[in-house]
Amino acid sequence: MTLSRRGFVRQFGVGAVGTxxxxxxxxxxxxxxxxxxxxxxxxPKPLLIRLDSNENPDGPGPVALQAIRDALGDTMRYPDxxxxxxxxxxxxxxxxxxxxxxxxxxxxxxxxxxxxxxxxPTRGLVTAAPSYESPSVEAERVGxxxxxxxxxxxxxxxxxxxxxxxxxxxxxYLCNPNNPTATVHGGQVVRAFIDRVLRDTPELTVLVDEAxxxxxxxxxxxxxxxxxxxxxxVVVTRTFSKVYGMAGLRxxxxxxxxxxxxxxxxxxxxxxxxxxxxxxxxxxxxAKGHVAREQARNRAARDFTRKxxxxxxxACGPSEANFIMVDxxxxxxxxxxxxxxxxxxxGRPFPPLETQARITIGTMxxxxxxxxxxxxxLGSA
Length: 381
Fold this sequence. Notes:
Blueprint: H1 5-12, H2 14-18, H3 30-33, E1 49-51, H4 62-71, H5 80-93, E2 101-104, H6 106-118, E3 125-129, H7 134-142, E4 146-150, H8 159-165, E5 171-175, H9 187-200, E6 205-209, H10 225-230, E7 234-239, E8 252-255, H11 258-265, H12 275-285, H13 290-311, E9 323-327, H14 332-341, E10 344-346, E11 356-360, H15 364-379
Parallel strand pairs: 1-10, 3-4, 3-5, 5-6, 6-7
Antiparallel strand pairs: 2-8, 7-8, 9-11
Helix pairs in contact: 4-12, 5-12, 6-7, 13-15
């Protein structure tokens, strides 16, 4: 008896498809594949605990997984309808219309498009050091100068320094909360910063990356989405990779004025969102309680981890994300290698920080199993 692809999926489920993936693939992540980060490094086998790429250990919620199963039978079609439904769902979430929304192959696709749209060899990029590197990598690729302003001693973005560097620039990238430092600036502070830089350089575009928006507990924080919907020089990006657990499905979006979205769209990957990712993302936006549950899970595991490091005598900066930055008081490369040898993967080094290690928050069980490894490594010479 022959079995169609649809019948195969219905009989064996999505999990059966996953078993056909090559073993090495599971050991790779964004940490290994982004340009400028050196050769691909496979995770140890058997893979134990992945705390290196700020992924959500819970993965997509049940509603999203069911949406994927339901959509598998139609994957011979191009994803236009699924993408349109998602664009409408995102617009509804933010109380606007689809003309203010553009979707991308993860928010990284949109960050790249913004660099191409708003920078040039004469109008560069301003970012933080360290911050998410994708905009800097793209700016260097297209020949736009990059000014990376070092974070302050408390690991927050140096907004004064970034404002001074932004005069004459084409794009300023503000990751809030910032990856990898996990720090956040309040809404009033960010609005004042944006007003300041746009007053000094009206033709500048401000790109606010809110990838970790859902994890923020700081009461002073607020999203810049309302400002982006009003101001043609402000763009906000979000992703389904973090709180929604879809890093492997690659779905993100931008919000802004329609004319600004049209400018960005010229550089966004055409047909960059697949039907399964679009279906899962649309379903997730309608899943009641998912975000609140993930917030609570992350908060509990994060608090446990920060306290455990503090009990060992190692300082953790404040965290408003699903990762923490720990001063391990040694070369983070050696710390990372020692943890990896013991089956725990943590983030790569983030220059110019010399002794800081970024650790993703996994499940509570994963963090309980990882802490003895961290204690052993930190207790060694």
